[in-house]
Specification:
This protein is an all-beta fold and 91 residues long. The chain has no helices and eight strands.
């Protein structure tokens, strides 16, 4: 992978950045809700492309080593009921 900028996509369209604010419930007592943030530009995963999509009950984040060959490093899912806000910064 080169040192070039990471490509960020939302539903397949290239954008400048995507930030997702979501709630998680850690397995601790007492039960508390923690607000987490995913910022595609600041994410440290070494990948060529991140494609973020809202599909059914999940926000899906797919991290591609090489998108043209569909070489996927990993995929993360955030349940939509946990999502507080999604910011999309267009190009």
């Amino acid at each position: 992978m080169s040192k070039e900028r990471k490509i960020i996509k939302f539903h397949g369209a290239e954008v400048k950045n995507v930030i997702i604010l979501y709630a998680i419930r850690p397995n601790s007592k007492p039960v508390t809700i923690v607000i987490e943030q995913f910022d595609a530009l600041k994410d440290e995963e070494r990948c060529e492309t991140i494609n973020i999509q809202v599909v059914a009950d999940f926000v899906t984040m797919t991290f591609y080593k090489q998108e043209s060959s569909n070489s996927i490093l990993r995929r993360e899912l955030i349940p939509t009921h946990s999502v507080e806000h999604i910011w999309i910064e267009d190009l």
